[in-house]
Structures are given as C-alpha cells and as structure tokens.
C-alpha cells in the first residue's frame, strides 16, 4: 500500500555518502528547462490544493446568505421550503436517510466484501483467482445509473414480498415497522448501495490480504491451525487497517451516491410523521439536490441546496480523512 | 512442509484410531479427550470455507442479474443501423425507433474534453509527487488528492454550478459539466500515474543523470516513457469512471434530442441523460427499450475502455 501517499520512507533515506539521493530536488541543476518543468509540476499540485479549497470556500460563501435567512433550525428541522419570503429548511430528514442507508450498506457490504476478498486470496483454486477478481471489478465498471434502473425496475418488484414478510414477522420492532411505503425504502436503498460499494471493499481488502507475510501464515499452519484459524490469527489482523480504510472509502462513496438513489427514493410528503422505521421513504442529500436541479432559480433557493451539499461534503471529508489516517498508521508499521 | 503439519495434526482423519501416536499411549488418550474440541475446530473450518464460497456467489448474483437484464431488454435495438446513425429528434416517448448517435458522440466529446484538461494536471501532479515533492507541500497535495477522490459527484457539480452559473453568470453547458467531471477524474489519473512512476527503477534515472541529462529531460524521456503504457491505462480507467457519471450532467448539462457539437452553448446530449430522459416514461415499451439500449451502449463503452486499458497494461507493463 505504498501507493497511498506518494512519499515512501525509502525515498528520504540518504545515499551512501550521506547526501540526499539524486531523485530529490538536489538533482535539479537550475537549468531553465528544469525550472519550467519542475515549476509546472509544482503548479499542478498546487492547482489541486486550490481546487479542493475552492470547493469548500464556494460552498460556504454561497450557503451563508441562505442560512442567515433561514427561520428554521438548519440541523434539527425536517421542513424543506427554501425560497420565498420566509424560507424554512432543515436537513434532519436527509441526514437520517443518508446515514442510515449508508450504514446499512456497510453492514451488508463489509462482511460480504471481506468474505469475497478472502475467497479470492485464500480459498479460490489458483485458476479461478484472476477471473474471480475480474468479475468483481466488473461490478465496479457498471455505471451507477444502470444500478438505478435495475433497482427501480427489476429488483424492486422482487424485493416487495421480502419487505412484506419482514414487516409481518418483525413489524413489532420499531426499525421494521410498516409505513405503507414499498419500493424506495431506506432498507432497499441500503441494499442497492451495498451492491454498488462491494467492489470497493473487496478490491482494497484483497490487496492487503495478499500482502500477509507468508511466514505468518505458515507459522500459524505449523502450529496446527486449521485454514480458518490461520486466517483469523494471521490474515485478518494483518489486513484489519486495510479493511477499515476500505470500508471508510466505501462509506464515503455510499454517502455521496447520487443518481441510483435519486431513481429509487420515495420522497416523503410534507409533514409526514417521524418514524424510526427503515421501511420509510425519505430523500438523501444527494437525491434531494439532484431531484431539484431545475429549481435553482433564485440565489436563496440555490443557497439552501448548496448548504445541503456542503454538509454532504463535510461528511465525506471526515470519513475519507479517517480512512487516510488509518492507512497512514498502517504504513508506519509496515515500512 | 504443510504435509508434515497435517500428519501431526491430532484430529487428522488419516491417523488410524489404534495407531500409537507420537506421544505414546498416554498421549493418544489425551488426544482422545481433546477429540471433541478438535471436531469443533474442523466444523468451524468447513463452515468458514462454505461461507466464503457463498459470499462470492452472493456477489455474483447482482452482476449476472444486472447484465442479463440490460442485455435481454436492450440488445435488439443495438442491432439496428438506425441506433448507431440517428438521433431522437421529433421522437416522443411513445414512438419507437430513433438512434443514439447524438448521445454517443456527445458523451465521447464531453469525456474527451474532460480528459484534455484532467490528464495534464493529473500527470504533472503525479510527477511532482514522485519526482519532486518532499515534505509538507507533497503531503498536503497527496492529502487533497485523497479528499478530491472522495468528493461526491453531486458536490463537484454544485461547486461548478456555484462558480460557473451563480458567480460568473454563464449558462449551463456541456463544458460546465466537463469541468465537474475534471474534478472527479484528476484523482484517478494522479493515483494511477503515481503507481506507475514508482515502478520505474531508480537505476534508469541515475543512469540518465550520470550521462549529464537534465532532470526534466530524464523525467520526460526516461521516466514517463518507461511508464507510458501504465499511464495510458490509468487515463482510460479514469475516463471510464467519469463516463457513466450522471449527477453533474443533471445539474449542469440539460439534455437535447438533437445532434449538438457545441460544448459551450446550449443543451448537450449524453448517454446517461438519454437514459434519464426515457426513464421518465419507462412504463411505455418504446421508451423502456430505448432506455435499456442506451444503458447497454454505455456499459459497452465503459467496458471497452476498461478492456483496452487492461490489455495495454498487460502487454506494456514495466518489467520488474
């Protein structure tokens, strides 16, 4: 996983004479060409930093006026009526739907994804490994709009009886209480998201499981461990940080997934009662913004959607930063 | 080595019950007493094996199901010449026929423009990270690339909207959508190029320096050339990633049913938006089959890029 930062510890080791190696800045001779080329490379890097900062700045700047006009509490209100003389909007519903559906997606895709990665790296016969990995990658190549179509038209009718069955048997439990909504429920969206992020979990987990030192695995086997015990004691502990960061990246993807969710959600009517049920509808941040792209008519309305987008940006930022920190710490141990 | 391990395993079925085990008679009795926990271990082992196979086949279900759905419902339209040559002008949802040429060309043109902007920035950034960058700036760039790769497409689209439409007062267009796609493509290009540059052996660089070749010539003619096929692969995978993005198009590039080659003015046709258009009327058989055919076309384009990328990677990879 030395891929992650672009700076590896060995790069910074001094050469045999104690001076930095030639690949560092020292190799630049101050020639014009060198300065131009090096400058262009530096500039590109700086452009990337500037772009990301600009995303934050623009979203914040354009969200502030709308937030100032907002007469409802932005974080705890479930209303969404931006624009007009008395705009009232809050993100509670989107936050709940987004986080719950993504959490559900994680609960499904992480165990299955790790299982698939273990299958590919440890269990599959040698001839099967490459094709199996390619098939899982194929799942990642399917555009998300196609997942949306498939979920909406093909998978959703199939899922309805399953939901009916669960409501029948588990309806006493608040999370599974019937709400009269079928099709685009939080639960259903969670499942489709799980399928979409599965290849992310699998690809990264596969990579770390493959790097488990042979000595650890053979050591476990030599002590009489069964294959599963070997995996539990050697492969999984070694791969844990990789699995965690893979899950975080997948979570970030699930939180921000737009078009598939937009196709699937059932929007709630204004003023519908609050429920904890996973079989409720409700928009996510991304679907709300995408569904109302045509509504970006006046600045205060647009500002409300940009504010929602800002919250989504912050959410994914936090999740991705955690993934990053976990990877960094792992690097510290393995290099 | 593993054969020895297996033989010594007390619960191994190949050890007959009455054989004297390595530990002698007493040892065998001890092993007998341990028999039941060992059986539990074996059972667990078998269960784990079954679960892993199950996970794999579970993951294959949606893949097969999706591909089957799209192919069975959309393939027949792709067989007609009209699909590849016509557009959707004056064709309503309940009319059959029409082509997707406008959308295919539009999508290719848009991702072409995206690549034109994203690839130089991406490659130069990767060159900086691998060949030049040390210390704080490199870390900051590397961190922001990670953050950028996690930015949801809808947020990228909102950002471009906030700049392009709200701040500069320009109208929505294919180019605005391409700018949003640039944000999504840069991190893919940076990461894959970085990987490839790191695979280039340091000896090559040192050999060039020893001949007195300036650093930038070394990077261009030695490092980038050695890693060339890998970089192409990364670029193709990056294009494949942004080709299917719909959210930015939804916000920034309204759909048109006509041929439209102007990225800078007016509505712009793309495959995802064509799917989205016909999705509104998917209850009509005519719209539904167009929708699935457009989805299949999109998948084929994405897969083609993936396959070409992988073939190039396979034949041209840096030999270790």
From TrEMBL, chain A:
GO terms for biological process: phosphate ion transport. It is a multi-pass membrane protein. GO terms for molecular function: phosphate transmembrane transporter activity. It is found in: Cell membrane. One of its GO terms (cellular component) is plasma membrane. InterPro entries: MetI-like, MetI-like_sf, Phosphate_PstC, Phosphate_Transport_Permease. It comes from Humibacillus xanthopallidus. Part of the binding-protein-dependent transport system for phosphate; probably responsible for the translocation of the substrate across the membrane. This is Phosphate transport system permease protein. Belongs to the binding-protein-dependent transport system permease family. CysTW subfamily. Keywords: Cell membrane, Membrane, Phosphate transport, Transmembrane, Transmembrane helix, Transport. The chain crosses the membrane at residues 40-64, 94-120, 132-155, 175-201, 250-269, 304-327. The keyword Transferase does not apply. Pfam families: BPD_transp_1. Residues 95-323 form the ABC transmembrane type-1 domain. Residues 1-27 are annotated as: Disordered. It comes from the Bacteria. Gene3D superfamilies: MetI-like.
TrEMBL record, chain B:
Keywords: Cell membrane, Membrane, Phosphate transport, Transmembrane, Transmembrane helix, Transport. Residues 1-12 have a biased composition (Basic and acidic residues). Residues 1-36 are annotated as: Disordered. GO terms for molecular function: phosphate transmembrane transporter activity. InterPro entries: MetI-like, MetI-like_sf, Phosphate_PstA, Phosphate_transprt_permease. One of its GO terms (cellular component) is plasma membrane. It comes from the Bacteria. PANTHER family: PHOSPHATE TRANSPORT SYSTEM PERMEASE PROTEIN PSTA. This is Phosphate transport system permease protein PstA. It comes from Humibacillus xanthopallidus.
């Amino acid at each position: 996983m030395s891929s992650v930062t672009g700076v590896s510890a060995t790069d910074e080791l001094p050469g045999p004479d104690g001076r930095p190696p030639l690949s560092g800045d020292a190799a630049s001779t101050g020639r014009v060409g060198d300065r131009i080329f090096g400058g262009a490379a530096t500039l590109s890097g700086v452009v990337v930093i500037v772009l990301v900062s600009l995303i934050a700045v623009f979203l914040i700047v354009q969200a502030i006026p709308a937030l100032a006009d907002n007469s409802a509490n932005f974080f705890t209100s479930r209303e969404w009526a931006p624009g007009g003389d008395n705009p009232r909007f809050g993100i509670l519903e989107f936050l709940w739907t987004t986080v719950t559906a993504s959490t559900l997606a994680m609960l499904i895709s992480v165990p299955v994804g790790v299982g698939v990665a273990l299958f590919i790296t440890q269990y599959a016969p040698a001839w099967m490994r490459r094709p199996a990995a390619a098939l899982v990658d194929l799942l990642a190549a399917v555009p998300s709009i196609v997942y949306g179509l498939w979920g909406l038209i093909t998978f959703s009718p199939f899922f309805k009886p399953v939901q009916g069955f669960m409501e029948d048997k588990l309806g006493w439990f608040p999370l599974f209480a019937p709400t009269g909504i079928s099709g685009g429920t939080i639960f259903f969206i969670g499942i489709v998201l799980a399928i979409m992020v599965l290849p992310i979990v699998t690809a990264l987990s596969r990579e770390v499981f493959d790097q488990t030192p042979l000595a650890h695995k053979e050591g476990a086997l030599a002590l009489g461990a069964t294959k599963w015990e070997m995996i539990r004691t050697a492969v999984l502990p070694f791969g844990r940080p990789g699995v965690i960061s893979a899950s975080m990246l997948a979570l970030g993807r699930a939180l921000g997934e737009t078009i598939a969710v937009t196709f699937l959600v059932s929007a709630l009517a204004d003023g519908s009662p609050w429920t904890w049920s996973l079989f409720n509808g409700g928009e996510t941040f991304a679907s709300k913004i995408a569904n109302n792209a045509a509504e970006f008519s006046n600045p205060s309305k647009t500002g409300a959607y940009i504010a929602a987008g800002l919250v989504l940006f912050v959410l994914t930022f936090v999740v991705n930063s955690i993934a990053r920190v976990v990877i960094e710490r792992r690097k510290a141990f393995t290099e | 080595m593993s054969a020895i391990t297996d033989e010594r395993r007390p619960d191994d079925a190949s050890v007959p019950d009455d054989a004297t085990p390595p530990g002698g008679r007493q040892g065998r009795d001890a092993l007998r007493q341990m028999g039941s926990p060992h059986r539990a271990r074996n059972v667990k082992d078998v269960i784990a094996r079954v679960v892993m196979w199950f996970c794999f086949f579970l993951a294959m279900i949606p893949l097969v199901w999706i591909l089957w759905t799209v192919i069975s419902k959309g393939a027949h339209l792709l067989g007609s010449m009209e699909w590849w040559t016509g557009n959707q002008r004056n064709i309503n949802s309940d009319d059959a026929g029409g082509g997707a040429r406008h959308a295919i060309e539009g999508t290719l043109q848009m991702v072409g423009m995206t690549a034109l902007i994203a690839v130089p920035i991406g490659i130069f950034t990767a060159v900086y990270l691998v060949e030049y960058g040390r210390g704080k700036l490199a870390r900051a760039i590397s961190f922001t690339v990670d953050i950028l790769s996690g930015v949801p497409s809808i947020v990228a689209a909102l950002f471009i909207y906030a700049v392009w439409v709200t701040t500069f007062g320009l109208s929505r267009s294919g180019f605005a959508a391409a700018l949003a796609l640039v944000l999504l493509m840069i991190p893919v290009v940076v990461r894959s190029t970085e990987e490839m540059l790191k695979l280039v052996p340091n000896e090559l660089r040192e050999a060039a320096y020893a001949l007195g070749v300036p650093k930038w010539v070394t990077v261009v003619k030695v490092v980038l050339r050695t890693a060339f096929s890998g970089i192409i692969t990364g670029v193709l995978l990056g294009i494949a990633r942004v080709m299917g993005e719909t959210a930015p198009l939804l916000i920034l590039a309204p759909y048109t049913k006509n041929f439209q080659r102007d990225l800078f003015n007016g509505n712009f046709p793309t495959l995802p938006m064509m799917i989205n258009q016909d999705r509104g009327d998917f209850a009509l058989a005519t719209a539904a089959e167009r929708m699935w055919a457009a989805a299949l076309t999109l998948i084929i384009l994405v897969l083609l890029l993936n396959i070409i990328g992988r073939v190039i990677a396979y034949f041209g990879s840096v030999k270790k």
